[in-house]
Amino acid sequence: MYFYGVLLKTEILNKLRSEALMLPEAERAELAHALVKSLDAPDDADASKAWEKEIPRRLVEIDVGTAKLIDRNEFRRRKQARIGS
Predict the structure, then answer these.
(1) φ and ψ at 43, to 5 degrees?
(2) Is the pLDDT of residue 63 over 50?
């Protein structure tokens, strides 16, 4: 019975995959987004509130010229140095 259950799940997955791939691009993107979102942890209310304050603060710093910005190449260099790849 267990083997049948695994086989059935594989068949269902294959059918879903096949049907999903026949959807128009926009609908596939919407489905992909929903599936990925379903794997994410629940929203952290405290983090969301903190970012609601932090983002406007950073935008103001950029607008008034007090933010220290770096270009893409420098960002990549720093990232690679940090993670070692």
Answers:
(1) -60, 140
(2) yes
